[in-house]
Write a structure and sequence with these properties.
The protein is α+β, with helices and mostly antiparallel strands. It is globular, with a radius of gyration of 20 Å. The chain is built from eleven helices and 14 strands. The longest helix is centred in the C-terminal third of the chain and has 27 residues. A five-stranded antiparallel β-sheet has the order 4-5-10-6-7. Strands 11-12-13-14 form a four-stranded antiparallel β-sheet. Strands 1-3-2 form a three-stranded parallel β-sheet, covered by helices on one side. It has three domains: 47 residues, Uridine Diphospho-n-acetylenolpyruvylglucosamine Reductase, domain 2 (2-Layer Sandwich); 115 residues, Uridine Diphospho-n-acetylenolpyruvylglucosamine Reductase, domain 3; 113 residues, Enolase-like, domain 1, CATH 3.30.390.50. The termini are far apart. The mean pLDDT is 93. Helix 5 runs antiparallel to helix 8 and helix 7 crosses helix 8.
Length: 292
């Protein structure tokens, strides 16, 4: 199929882009990598009167270390996130998750900002942003805003971006030397979206006592969710197999998995338990090896 007819614009700079958005509002849509939007338009699942191509805005593609955070422009490609030594050292969970997106050609074209704003409930980048409590920096013709990931997302395929506003950049916290991390996902074929995925960061003290946990999951509710707050009763305790079983049981009690035509809620629960165990074991092994 072919998309509905639309007007095409290619702004040369940010000022021109914001002016177009201010002029057209809801009838316009931005396109960068187009890895999600183009198929939706071709299948006529999405229809916009104006399509604004932002690939000329190279100043929105960057990776910078500022104080205790890594800042990325919204036009940064997935393969750049995955390959960046700065991110691999400072926020390795982000770079690893980016390396699991689709296939290499998709990572070459797709952008971080595009994935975050598309808000697909099975995508990796919204999950990592929520798990790490990333900051979203937005702008329209009149003002700039900074939002937490929890405030940016309002649900599946839905964000709090205003009709004339763009996501300009995203910032993530730098990991400490005592942070272990893991990312686990299960999909039927390489390159497919995951049925369930787990993002995990754990901070220990010198006695192997858990000081902090950040954990997020896809596939056990209608959208990616940060479950870190539910881990608080399990902090300040030593890691053990029993501790892990109790924590996972507690987390699963607040999940809201759903049935669909091919995958049952009970299967999602079983899969989440397996993946959470793998994530904690991987994080523990990583931390143990870093101390030797």
């Amino acid at each position: 199929m072919k998309p509905f007819a639309f007007e095409y614009y290619q702004p040369a700079n940010l000022k021109e882009l914001l002016g177009l958005l201010n002029q057209f509002g809801d009838s316009a849509k931005l396109i960068a990598g187009g890895q999600s939007l183009a198929p939706m338009m071709n299948m006529r699942m999405a229809n916009f009167e104006q399509l604004i191509d932002i690939n000329q805005l190279s100043k929105l593609a960057y990776i910078e270390h500022i104080q205790d955070r890594i800042h990325l422009g919204a036009m940064t490609r997935h393969h750049e996130v995955a390959a960046s030594e700065m991110i691999q050292q400072g926020c390795p969970l982000l770079s690893f998750a980016a390396s699991t997106i689709g296939h290499y050609v998709i990572r070459q074209q797709g952008t971080l900002g595009g994935s975050l704003c598309h808000a697909d409930p099975a995508a990796q980048m919204p999950l990592i942003a929520l798990t790490l409590n990333a900051s979203f920096h937005t702008q329209n013709i009149d003002r700039e805003r900074t939002l937490t990931a929890a405030d940016f997302y309002t649900g599946a395929m839905s964000t709090s971006l205003e009709k004339n506003e763009i996501l300009k950049s995203i910032s993530y916290p730098i990991f400490t030397k005592d942070t272990a991390w893991a990312f686990e996902m299960f999909n039927r074929r390489h390159g497919d979206y995951a049925i369930v995925s787990v993002a995990l960061c754990v901070e220990f003290d010198s006695d192997f006592v858990i000081q902090k946990i950040r954990i997020g999951l896809n596939g056990v509710s209608d959208f990616a969710h940060d479950y870190s707050i539910f881990c608080e009763p399990f902090l300040k305790l030593p890691y053990s197999a029993i501790w892990l079983e109790d924590l996972i049981d507690h987390l699963q009690s607040v999940f809201q998995p759903f049935d669909d035509e091919k995958i049952s809620a009970s299967y999602r629960l079983d899969l989440s338990k397996t993946l959470m165990k793998k994530a904690f074991h991987r994080a523990i092994n990583h931390y143990s090896s870093s101390r030797t």
